[in-house]
């Protein structure tokens, strides 16, 4: 066995993992299963989705490797991850009779192609392409709902929309904080901080509005529970602005966002189970 196969390639896409895992957990546990909860199918989907993401991320690096990178190692691990993803997916479609999962291949393939193209031309970090990337990862939510419930509408679609709104909001807020951290920019006044985060506050305002619209159209009273994490994010933004908080540790910022993501996931489950 070649030595480069002894050590797996783990792309540094830390922010992407919650966007992939939270919708999948919520989609598996929030909906009411029909006829019964399928833990084996849930595990198979998780393995397939995680390995699929590793395969795509590794292939992206292999297509444009950094200096000193071993392209053969990257390509080999992309193939390994692809096989590891295909096996549980085939089990779900052929053995567990979840043939509807094949429909998810179409949007996943389109979004993956856009992801590769945006990375190649350097537009990956812009708002439209960032939302497209988040939208691709959040497809794990309706896929998980389909496995447990046999359908995507309406529960899987609602989970997808809420996850897309939440992670779009939090991703751009955290990214702005990291950007200012790298540039060593610390606002001295409340108004200066508001100015530095103005675009993020606009995105947050739109997120609140979209949340209200979706809940209103859905018509389920327990849906208003989903405003709780968004309003807590509003309170956090306001508090950080009031005390002119400036993050200095990327790890602390990451753990803070992770805790908020877990809280969001739990509330999503409670909302559907209420």
Can you put this structure into words, describing what you see?
The chain has 274 residues and is an all-alpha fold. It folds into 2 domains: 1-151, no CATH class; 153-274. 72% of the residues lie in helices and 0% in strands. The chain contains 11 helices and no strands. α2 runs antiparallel to α3, α6 packs antiparallel against α7 (155-182) and α9 (198-218) runs antiparallel to α10. The longest helix is centred in the middle third of the chain and has 28 residues, at 155-182. The chain is globular, with a radius of gyration of 20 Å. The mean pLDDT is 83.
Number of helices: 11
* Form type: globular
Sheet/helix structural class:
mainly alpha
Beta strands, count: 0
Q: How many structural domains does the protein architecture include?
A: 2
Termini separation comes to 53 Å
Biggest sheet character: none
Runs with pLDDT <50, length 5+? none
Average the pLDDT over all residues and give the rounded result: 83
Give the amount of beta strand, in percent: under 5%
Order of helical and strand elements? HHHHHHHHHHH
**What is the C-alpha radius of gyration, as a whole number of Å?**
20 Å
Helix content: over 70%
């Amino acid at each position: 066995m070649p030595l480069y196969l002894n050590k797996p390639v783990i792309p540094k896409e830390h922010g992407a993992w919650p966007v992939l895992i939270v919708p999948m957990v919520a989609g598996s546990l929030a909906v009411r299963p029909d006829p019964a909860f399928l833990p084996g199918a849930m595990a198979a989907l998780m393995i397939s989705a995680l390995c699929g993401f590793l395969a795509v991320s590794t292939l992206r690096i292999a297509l444009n490797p950094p200096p000193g990178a071993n392209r053969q190692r990257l390509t080999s691990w992309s193939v390994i991850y692809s096989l590891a993803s295909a096996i549980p997916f085939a089990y779900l479609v052929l053995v567990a009779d979840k043939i509807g999962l094949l429909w998810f291949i179409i949007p996943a393939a389109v979004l993956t192609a856009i992801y590769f193209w945006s990375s190649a031309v350097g537009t990956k970090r812009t708002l439209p392409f960032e939302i497209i990337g988040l939208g691709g990862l959040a497809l794990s939510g309706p896929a998980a709902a389909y496995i447990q419930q046999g359908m995507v509408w309406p529960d899987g679609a609602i989970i997808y929309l809420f996850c897309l709104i939440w992670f779009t909001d939090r991703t751009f807020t955290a990214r702005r904080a990291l950007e200012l951290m790298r540039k060593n920019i610390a606002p001295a006044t409340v108004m200066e901080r508001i100015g530095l985060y103005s675009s993020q506050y606009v995105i947050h305002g739109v997120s609140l509005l979209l949340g209200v619209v979706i809940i209103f159209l859905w018509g389920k009273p327990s849906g208003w529970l989903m405003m709780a994490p968004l309003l807590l994010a509003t309170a956090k933004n306001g508090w950080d602005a009031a005390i002119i908080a400036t993050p200095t540790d990327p790890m602390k910022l990451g753990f803070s966002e992770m805790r908020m993501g877990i809280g969001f996931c739990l509330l999503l489950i409670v909302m559907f189970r209420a």
